[in-house]
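fyi for ur records
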Amino acid sequence: MRALHHFSAAAAIGLSALLGVAHQASAQIKIGAVLSVTGPASFLGDPEKKTLEIYVEEINAKGGVNGQKIQLIVYDDGGIADNARTFATRLVEDDKIVAMVGGSTTGATMAMIPVFEDAKIPFISLAGAIQIIEPVHKWVFKTPHTDKMACEKIFADLKTRNLTTVALISGTDAFGKSMRDQCVAVAPKTGITIALEESYGPRDSDMTPQLTNIRNKAGVQAVVNPGFGQGPAIVTRNYRQLGITLPLYQSHGVASKQFIDLAGPAAEGVRLPAAALLIAEKLPASDPQKPVVVNYSRNYQQKSGQAVSTFGGHAYDGLMILVAAMQRAKSADTAKVRDEIERTKGYIGTGGIVNMTPADHMGLDLSAFHMLEIKSGDWTLVPGT
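which gave:
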């Protein structure tokens, strides 16, 4: 009986310890991330995943959020929207997350929005299309600049060069389609005429026929390529191979060193709108973003061994906006956190200075964009932009 008593006591202590561990585990703040870590959009998802892991580790090392550690749960959708929706459902139903930072692509994000809206879980997307936040979804936010802003920035730069007639060559992916639509809508308002449109699919490996049509179109003064992934690099190489000398503009969807590497010498002279992060060290000391982008850039490169991209920066901003909202809410309650995300004001991030409202779930204006030009294999700031 005495042995049984000791066994029962030991079992009770063991059970108590196990329950204590279970309680600690349940007390963690579970944050989900569905990212395109592999596949055609890996240049987006890989730096996003690395960024989230780096900064979650740092936050936890400093005590977590409101005394609780963050548990980051990452799934790789491989760039497939259907996979993203499946993982979003798993995050809600099985993992019981309280917030989501992810969605590398527009297609994946749009597939996941209904899941998080129905579950009433805050979702901060890392994708570019304006349709993610217009019309406003109560539980959905985003950190990157929109494709509409990219069109406006590109067209403003064209006007400074007295170029008013352009051709578009657009990707048929969700982002390419969305930016194409935004450029078509914005063009008349900015005095730009779109004289010709061409397109290419995500698996196309040669855009020479489309670019030949553009080269032969009379009156075209510049070319704009709404797209992301490897397509724009192929467009850029084919562009130079055909001897086209018109100014070529890419979107913020290629704002990483990988684009320069893929396009090679053909990238020389290409312009695109992008965040300050790509020119962190070149910003004037008076720029309020400089300390943020320099610190992130150095930290990311040191810990990942990779060149910085704006895409990892979008993940950094999403995580920091979420953490700050939880701190203000003094809670991980989904409704309270959602409200505090929407109240984000004066957040200085890698993408710009964020001021959200109930009508604006991104909080960036056109001043957050810089016009960059690739020179000698590196980013340079176009004067006056």
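The domain at 29-145+289-365 is CATH 3.40.50.2300 (Rossmann fold). thats all i got for now
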